[in-house]
Each structure stands twice: as structure tokens, then as C-alpha cells.
């Protein structure tokens, strides 16, 4: 009887672990097009750009910027407009002040974004490297 109880506990723990893993932070090998329950969303960066031009997250969510290339990126709030960098601190946007992500496999979390709206991030190193963040 004691053994059966132990087995039951084991399986319920396993279920918890599996559930925790599968609801992770959107880091799966799919194109990362789904928000997770934890509100985290991964955006990949190549050597000169974001892998996607915009990302939609839930209010209170964060974005993890993952560098897939050897190139370092420096992320700030604002955007590139016609080849010139325009730093803007948008109302309701978390402070993003030259966050450095230094090469392949490195990542930084931006946020949480606590105010619904449309916000802009850019890489100060690479002209045209813009990311629009839509918070719902
Ligand atoms: Cu960059």
C-alpha cells in the first residue's frame, strides 16, 4: 500500500514537471509565435536585425531578446527613421537604456510592459533594426 502511494506521488510530480516545461517561455523550436502563460516572449536577433519586426505581448509581459549571431546589439527605446536614430521614451514604456546583448547565445529581458499600447525598440548599432512592441 505504501509503495502504491509512492508511485502515485511520483507520477503526480512528473505531471507537474511536464506541465511546467510545456508551458515554458516560448523558447521552443517552433517559430515562437505564441505567448506563454508566464507572459514571456522570445525575440531572436540575427547579425543586423530582429528576426521579426513586431511582437504582440500581454499586459505585464516581458520580452527576452536572444542574440543568435556573434554581433553585439545595444537596445534602446526609440526607432530608426529614414536612416537616423530617434531615441524616444514613450509614455508607459519601461526604461530601456542601451541594453547590451553581447553576442551569440546571450539574452536580456526587456520589461515588464505594464501599459497597453504600441512601443518602439531599436538597436543603436544597426541602422533600420527596429522592433515594434504591441502590448494588449
Ligand atoms: Cu543590432
TrEMBL record:
Q: Which residues form the signal peptide?
A: 1-19
What Pfam families does UniProt report for this protein, alphabetically?
Answer: Copper-bind
Tell me yes or no: is Metal-binding among this UniProt entry's keywords: yes
Which segments does the entry list as coiled coil?
none
Q: What top-level branch of life does the organism fall under?
A: Bacteria
Q: Could you tell me which InterPro entries the record lists for this protein?
A: BlueCu_1 (IPR000923), Cupredoxin (IPR008972)
Alphabetic keyword roster: Copper, Metal-binding, Signal
Asked if the keyword Metal-binding belongs to this entry, the reply reads: yes
Can you give the residue ranges of the Blue (type 1) copper domain? Answer: 47-136
UniProt-recorded name of the protein = Blue (type 1) copper domain-containing protein
**The species this protein was found in:** Dictyobacter formicarum
Amino acid at each position: 500500500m505504501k509503495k502504491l502511494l509512492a508511485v502515485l506521488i511520483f507520477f503526480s510530480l512528473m505531471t507537474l514537471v511536464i506541465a511546467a516545461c510545456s508551458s515554458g517561455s516560448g523558447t521552443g523550436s517552433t517559430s515562437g509565435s505564441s505567448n506563454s502563460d508566464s507572459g514571456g516572449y522570445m525575440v531572436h536577433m540575427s547579425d543586423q536585425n530582429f528576426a521579426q519586426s513586431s511582437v504582440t505581448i500581454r499586459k505585464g509581459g516581458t520580452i527576452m531578446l536572444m542574440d543568435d549571431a556573434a554581433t553585439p546589439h545595444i537596445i534602446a527605446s526609440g526607432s530608426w527613421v529614414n536612416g537616423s536614430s530617434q531615441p524616444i521614451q514613450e509614455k508607459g514604456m519601461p526604461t530601456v537604456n542601451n541594453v547590451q546583448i553581447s553576442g551569440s547565445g546571450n539574452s536580456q529581458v526587456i520589461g515588464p510592459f505594464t501599459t497597453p499600447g504600441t512601443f518602439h525598440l531599436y538597436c543603436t548599432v544597426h541602422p533600420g533594426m527596429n522592433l515594434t512592441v504591441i502590448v494588449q
